[in-house]
Structures are given as C-alpha cells and as structure tokens.
TrEMBL record:
This is MYND-type domain-containing protein. Keywords: Metal-binding, Zinc, Zinc-finger. Transmembrane segments: none annotated. Residues 337-348, 450-482 have a biased composition (Low complexity). The keyword Zinc-finger applies. Residues 383-429 form the MYND-type domain. The keyword Transmembrane does not apply. Residues 272-294, 331-352, 436-482 are annotated as: Disordered. It comes from Tetradesmus obliquus. InterPro entries: Znf_MYND. GO terms for molecular function: zinc ion binding.
Amino acid sequence: MCNLRGSVLPAALEAPELPAALQQHPHRAAVLLEAALRTTLCEQRLSQSRTDVIFGLGVLWRACRVMQRLQEHLRAVCLAEPAAAEQLFGLAGSILKSASHVCNRSFADKLGFTSSAYREGVLGPAIGCAGAAVHAVVQHADMRAAQRLLLLGRLLCMLGKAAGLCSSTAWPDSTVPSAEWNTDCYHLLGVAVSSIDGCASLLATVTLPGEAAAAAEAACQLQQQAVALASALQQQQLQLRDQVEDNAALHQAAAPGQLQLQQQQQQQQQQAEVASVFDQGQQEVSPEGEAGTCRAAGQAAQAAAAAAAATSAPIAPTAGTAAADLGSRHDVGVTPQQQQQQQQQQQQGHHSLPADLMQQLQHFGEAVCHQLPVSLWCCNPRCTNLQQQSEAELVGGKACVCADCRTARFCSRQCLEQCWKKRLHKGVCRRIAAARQQQQQQQQPPPPQQQQQQQQQQQEQQPPEQQQPEQQQQQQPQQQQN
C-alpha cells in the first residue's frame, strides 16, 4: 500500500530531531520525503480506505515538521546546488497539494469526525504545519522570488477552501459555541493577511513573464487586488477581535481549577474520539503482507493526531491555549452576569466569513499562480494529482506543455483544458507568445527595401559635421567635370 524507502526516512518521521544521516544529505532527504508523501497520499486516494486516509494524515503531519527541520541544512546546499532549491520548491508544492485534500467536507465525512474534532484535530494541524513550512521557504533568501510568490499563491488557494469548513453555515454543529467558530475564523484571517502581504511585497520585485507593458499592467492589477483584499480581511478581523477578546475574558474570570478541569475534559474527549476513529481504521488492515508496516505507521499517525488534537490551535499552531480556553462547552465557575453575557453572544449566532470574500481569496491565489507559469509543477492551481514520486517527475517527460507559450506544463490534458476553458491561462499565454514573436522579428534581417529606408533615415539623422564630408565628396567630381 505504501513504501517508505529505506530505514532512515521512517526514523526521521518519528525522531524528535533530524537524524545525522539526513543532516549530511538534506537534498536526498527532501527527495525521499516528497516521494514517501506522494506515494502515501496517492494510494490513499486510489484505494479509498479509511486506514489509508488515517495513515496519510499522520505522514503529512510529520512530513511538515521534518521539512521545517530541513530548512537550515538546505540553505547551505541551495547555494552550491541550484537543483536543491528546485527540490525544496517541489517538496513544498507536494505538501500544499497533500494538505488541500484535508480542506474538503468529503474527507471529513470519510473519517467520521464531528465538526469540532475535525477542525481541531485534523484541519488545524494540517493547515498550521503546511503554512509554517511554506512561510519558512518564503523567508529563504536563496529561493527565487517567483517561486516564493507561487507558493504563497497556492497557500491562499488552500486557505480559501479551508474557510468553508470554518463556517457554521457550511458545516452546522449545534454543540459548538460561537466562540470556537469566531476563533477559527480569526486565526485563519491572520494567516491569510500575512500571506497576502507577502504576495504584495514580492509582486513589487518580481517581473512577470511576457510582453513588458502587458506584464507590468498585470502586476499592477494584482497589487491593487492584494491591497483591497487585505483591507477587507482586516475589517473582518476587527469585527471578530472584540468577540474573541470578550469570550477570552469571560473564561479567564472563571475559577482556575474549574477552567483547568474543563480543558482536561475537552482534551480527553477529543483524544478519545480521534483514537476511536484510528482503532476502527486499523481493524480493516489485514495482518499479512505489508500490513505490519502500515499498522506500525498507523499507530504513529494515531499518536500524532491525538497530540495535535490536544495541543494544536484551530488554524494557528501558537494559539493552542487560547483555543482551549475559548472552546469550553460549560459555564462552570462563571457568575450569573457573565453567563447572561455568554447567552446573549450565543443568541447572536455564529460568525461566518462572507462567501464572496472567501472566493476572492481563492481566486486571487489562483490568479497569482497563473501569472507565473513554470515547468516545475502542474500550472493548474486546483490540481490534486499526486502520482509519480515528485512534482517535477509528474510534469516531466510526456506531460502536456502549452503549445502557444511553450512554458506552462500540466500533468494531464484535463488540467490544461480546465485552465483554458476558464480562460485563466489565456492572458499570460498571449503575453509570452507576443514577446517571443517580437524577439524573433528583431533577430530576423530586414528586407532590402527596408534596409535602404533605414540607411536613408540614419543619414538624415546624422549631425551636420558628419554630413559635410559626404557633401564635399559629391562636389569634387562636379568640379572636376567643370
């Protein structure tokens, strides 16, 4: 079902620190990590087994942590080996693709989680680790600015999809208080705003491909969209901040002992739910063949997800304590006045992010990706294909290449047609084709008549002191004839 190659990589997924063997060869470690991640998640989708889904989740969670440990060791390698930077880019792209699988309702329904447990135990850790890994690469000074901009664009696409699962209207759950929904939305908006700010700063330095004037206009439009979108998201944050702070103050006013007991009960309940789902999935595994390897890895995934459910934030990994405080479902130790305030807030309903705003977030990320076609991954931002051992191998060889721009590569004909039908690739494709045509015209020699016209124009543009010798040469034969 899955094949984690060698004995070094499984140890890296389990070890608290990066093994010395991988520290010495971080480039090779990134290759193995991407291959293991794609193989696991790809076969999970093909088999549609609960066990494979759970195992893939554990591998994704640990792969993000290993990637963060690889950052320091890869920086020195990227300076000496340009291929290492491309490998790091491909690994980050594979992690974003893998995390995108988590951001859909069908994935949650397949695992059998409730809305609260899924967001806190699955969605939060996956997005938090993927976001941290991407921002670590974005801060990598040796990585090309265009590649960093592409990763931020893909991250925004994923956040736009995840926002739907953080909406009480899209996934209603009467057992979840409004404080949890508000906190999830608040932290997701924070990650989105920081990513958009990163896009805006990189757009000021990156030169988009294609004809210069059209490329500059497209970059200006993206910058304007980034400013407007960041402003709208910040307004949503301000609306939620007061509610989040008020709820936090109410729970902090409760007795410390009662509050700690509530947190422990909530964590135990979430851990029990996660463990029960893992136990049910492991019962489907046959004890023969490769089942032993999968069962051992599944146990590691169970421990990882259980720890994530107990310690991670809904979206931001650093906000675990606040999420636990705001996620309490009881009013033990709260005064009658505070309880009345909570009831009033509950009656106001859950906060849901505007659907059009979340669509704008996803569409902006897609627009950024489409403006920078590369040959390192599938240029369809909605692609979820995890076949082959790496993203570079997926689009290499016989993969589809756009016949007009000859730059954008796609993993399949379906991805190419999807971008063309929605006219997402059309603008940049025409710019690149126009720039190539202009370059070819400049390199071709002009026809004879055009050459004579150019010579006459050059003579007319010459200053008088350069024209006098020519006039004297023309007058000398006339004098000789006289």
